[in-house]
Design a protein that fits this description.
Elements: H1 3-27, E1 35-45, E2 48-49, E3 56-57, E4 63-80, E5 85-87, E6 93-97, E7 105-110, E8 113-122, H2 126-129, E9 153-160, E10 170-176, E11 186-191, E12 198-200, E13 205-213, E14 231-232, H3 237-243, E15 250-258
Parallel strand pairs: 1-13, 10-14
Antiparallel strand pairs: 1-2, 1-7, 3-4, 4-5, 4-6, 4-8, 4-9, 8-11, 8-12, 9-10, 13-15
Length: 259
């Protein structure tokens, strides 16, 4: 073997020996730095899971057949014991819909810690509303965008009801608007555990099941009926009033930790 070839082999062996420890470390069983947060939303109406094409009775006594339900959840974070917020490390906004279970699940990562509340924004913040063409969940092709002047629809509920005076008995609520004083984006805060706090460690997965009680779309700070308002399709006072009920839509029904 030529001398230069011997030197080449030695250099190659030295390089392999040098990187082996780092490769073994990467392939080892070390715990990841973050924990996983999985949120599963469960829309329901009149005490039953929401199914398109099924007729339900609202708290107003009116019959309602839902056909579309979508909403934005953004800026998801967990509140620490000292009151500060720790944000998730992935997408800032998610578009949730009742068409399938996959559309109702958020899976993201978050640093380990001791937490008391889940917080998210139902809607889209004012900066994003005026940020031009966007992708992902905020792509205008998702059908949740009005115009560059009006911005995003934060929550959409559509269906039919005999109580609606609109042609075809249509019920259409496209709730949004980001301009003061009628900013319809609502901050939602939900306690994580009855005992008070949740300790989440690196490598663990926290699964949250959240009921979305659509009966409360029509009750709360602004109770109304379909006969009162069968349609809300533009930003303004009515959209803002309806959005005030959104804090009553959500409740944590189950929390589990997987190693």
């Amino acid at each position: 073997m030529k001398t230069e070839n011997k030197y080449s082999v030695l250099i190659l062996l030295s390089w392999i020996i040098g990187i082996l420890p780092s490769c073994q470390k990467q392939l080892g069983n070390e715990s990841p730095a973050n924990a996983v947060l999985e949120i599963r939303f469960h829309p329901q109406l009149d005490g039953f899971p929401l199914e398109y094409g099924t007729t339900y009775q609202l708290p107003t006594g009116e019959a309602f057949e839902p056909r579309v339900f979508k909403f934005y959840a953004g800026k998801i974070s967990l509140q620490q014991r000292n009151g500060s917020l720790t944000s998730t490390t992935k997408d800032p906004y998610y578009l949730l819909g009742a068409a399938s279970e996959d559309e109702l699940t958020i899976r993201t990562t978050i640093p380990p810690g001791t937490y008391s509340n889940l917080e998210f924004l139902l809607g889209v913040d004012s900066a994003r509303n005026v940020s031009g063409v966007q992708s992902g969940a905020l792509d205008p092709l998702k059908g949740m965008f009005w115009t560059w002047n009006s911005g995003y629809i934060f929550a959409k509920l559509e269906g039919i009801s005999p109580s609606s005076s609109v042609q075809g008995n249509k019920v259409e609520y496209h709730v949004g608007g980001f301009r003061v004083p009628f900013n319809a984006a609502q901050a939602i805060r939900l306690p994580l555990a009855v005992s008070g706090e949740l300790e989440l460690k690196a490598g663990q997965t926290c699964i949250l099941d959240i009921a979305v009680t659509l009966d409360n779309w029509f009750t709360g700070p602004y109770p109304f009926s379909i006969s009162d308002h069968p349609v809300c399709m533009t930003p303004g006072e009515l959209a803002w009033n309806i959005s005030r009920n959104f804090s009553g839509l959500f409740s944590v029904t189950n929390l589990s930790i997987e190693e």
